[in-house]
Task: structure prediction
Amino acid sequence: MRKFFFFLLSIMLLSSLTACTPTQPKMETKAPDPQMMGPTGGASDKVPDPNVEPMEIISVYSQNDDATGLNQAMDAVDELTAEALVDKLIEYGVLEEGTEVLKFDEADGTGTLDISKVPTSGSAGELLMLTAVGNTFTENFELRQLKLLVNGKNYSSGHIEQGDDDYLQYVKNYKEIK
Result:
């Protein structure tokens, strides 16, 4: 009887040890169907499309929420042109819909931008608009200064009058304009 209990105890001990050992996960040997696979999120998903034209990264300045300064946003255009920048300034609410570039020239670090119209607002709004246009053009075209013309004439409003020698220059403290 003693041998029987010893034998029974041995079997119980062996079965409890086998139940506690971790089992190896089974590996699937069949490759998954490629149509069923989702995106992996890895580097292979980030390969640029060779058929897409490269984009130009630009900075666009626009009025901040409380009208005390400007915000700078990074955006992209197909090609860096005056028309593309004016379109972005329209998109960001700096210029009015329908504003067109009549002419843009640049020479020796000075640009001349002639546009069809500018929005009318109070002196603070005009100063923000002028600074946004000036910063956007001087930064993206790497200009020292920008001459803004409206229909071939110096920018003029009831609050701000620009003469022949007045130019827009990049304003470093654009976040707070007084």
